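can u do me a favor
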């Protein structure tokens, strides 16, 4: 009977959609591991150190395993968006992360030697993070509208 098949197809589509949402949610995980995650990852060697981390993803390089929040700033306005600077002692590297940033924004990490990496915040992800910069050079994290100088930034650390 056609209506029964439609119901079964709708149920299958709903289950598949739920599984897809769960998979996407796991991809949006923050690059600062929880204590339980860090314990599970103990003993993994970092994928890079210092200047060899320039431009690399902190999650892929396992630098988020010991990533520590250095500073966090909240943007003005109703969004409640934050920009954060992270540091990994194992990797000797910094990266920036945005939390709840609106579409049309950009999160960036800049080091005092001029190296800069930018990621757009489009797509409404909870977290967006930048590639890393050498932690031996002071760095700051900024968040603001794309192609704008109106940025909210952490201090250099």
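np, heres the sequence
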């Amino acid at each position: 009977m056609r209506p029964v098949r439609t119901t079964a197809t709708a149920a299958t589509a709903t289950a598949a959609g739920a599984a897809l949402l769960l998979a996407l949610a796991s991809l949006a995980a923050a690059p600062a591991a929880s204590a339980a995650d860090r314990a599970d990852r103990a003993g993994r060697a970092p994928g890079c150190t210092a200047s060899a981390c320039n431009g690399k993803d902190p999650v892929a390089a396992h630098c988020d395993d010991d990533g520590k929040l250095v500073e966090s700033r909240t943007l003005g306005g109703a969004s409640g968006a934050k920009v954060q600077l992270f540091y990994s002692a194992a990797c000797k590297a910094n990266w920036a992360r945005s939390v709840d940033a609106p579409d049309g924004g950009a999160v960036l990490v800049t080091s005092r030697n001029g190296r800069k990496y930018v990621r757009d915040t489009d797509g409404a992800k909870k977290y967006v993070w930048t590639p890393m910069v050498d932690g031996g050079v002071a760095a700051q994290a900024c968040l603001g509208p794309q192609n704008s100088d109106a940025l909210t930034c952490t201090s250099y650390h």
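The first strand starts at residue 68 and ends at 74. hope that helps!!
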